[in-house]
Amino acid sequence: MCVEGPASVVRRDAWRVAPEEYRKQDMAESNVRLLDWLVRELLKMASVPHPNTRQAVCAYLLSITKRLAHVEVLKELQSSVQSAFMDLLSENNGMLHRTLNFLVTIFQQDSIHELDKGDR
User: Fold this and answer.
1) How many C-beta atoms lie closer than 10 Å to residue 88's C-beta?
2) How many structural domains comprise the chain?
3) I want to staple 12 with a disulfide (CB 3.0 to 4.6 A). Which of 22, 29, 73, 75 is the partner?
């Protein structure tokens, strides 16, 4: 994903390091600002009534959330992202519902991991 910059798993030496073995680096500040801008723009677009736009926003937010849920910017915007997903869920659209169900699972798993870290 382009907003990850040097922290992206595609930066690894694909011949020597498997994706699951790659140690993620911290994102550069410029990439964090880009991510912040991108997510805020997507959240604005989530309110556009056109169904194709809403599907695209849903897919982008799913991808970003899945790959970058650990980044502080997304943690700060989590309630806004969740609100956008709840708004999208109100539509009668099967593809959106499947995507959003997947996202709800990601958010729940992330919340459980955060609670586990707090108990230690």
Assistant:
1) 21
2) 1
3) 22
